[in-house]
Amino acid sequence: xxxxxxxxxxxxxxxxxxxxxxxxxxxxxxxxxxxxxxxxxxxxxxxxxxxxxxxxxxxxxxxxxxxxxxxxxxxxxxxxxxxxxxxxxxxxxxxxxxxxxxxxxxxxxxxxxxxxxxxxxxxxxxxxxxxxxxxxxxxxxxxxxxxxxxxxxxxxxxxxxxxxxxxxxxxxxxxxxxxxxxxxxxxxxxxxxxxxxxxxxxxxxxxxxxxxxxxxxxxxxxxxxxxxxxxxxxxxxxxxxxxxxxxxxxxxxxxxxxxxxxxxxxxxxxxxxxxxxxxxxxxxxxxxxxxxxxxxxxxxxxxxxxxxxxxxxxxxxxxxxxxxxxx
Length: 327
Known about the structure:
The protein is of the alpha/beta class. The chain is 30% helix and 27% strand.
């Protein structure tokens, strides 16, 4: 996870992270990244969204020096991370998808040790570790060894290890995997606070609905290419004036055809999602009510369109747990 001193709360625009035309082609000809360019400013939480296999983790491995791009540039502030991969590991904090190996360590001990390795002063690291344990509701496990912790608790401990003494860029790869819904909200709040402290955060995920609440800007990638980039509001601009109708199909029943006035519709698991024009909302509600009354559906919901609708339109994939079968 690298070694560097703690980052202060002051923002310094000189520490912007930049990837320029990054391309990675493997020996077998697979083009995992295809000319990806993006930047993350200090204090910004930047979401890198895409289905599994889109090329997100490949890009991250190039940032931290585990893979070398076929072409392109990667920098953090004035540091060329390709020419100096050691600097990448010093300046970046990274939470991988895989669980951190802490079986032999107690939870608090692992967090403090990681902060000390990264150059933090003992008193400051211990204080910050206790703050994170409280903020993530990990108090009952603080003295337990990793081997006895659930996957979700290990994930939260790993997040605390990475952020107790963060680098200039914090990279979080699917940080909420295995985490229960209550502590997910706590984790997202801590992600947002990293940005408020002036730290650049690169958030890698396929859970669009959760990420939308935490990020300042997002990039959607698929098949190694950047499809769209912007604020969540800008990404949803094409769906202004539209609503999302969700119909939860009853077990053992086939999904009905979407109403003819739906602009588009998609079945994700047992949920039929349709996008409607706002004037068609009354007809949409009537259609959904009839489906519930006939036993085809258990319930329905009508609300504003979300970033997930733009994501599905661009990639053709559902997000979050609905996409889990493609891992």
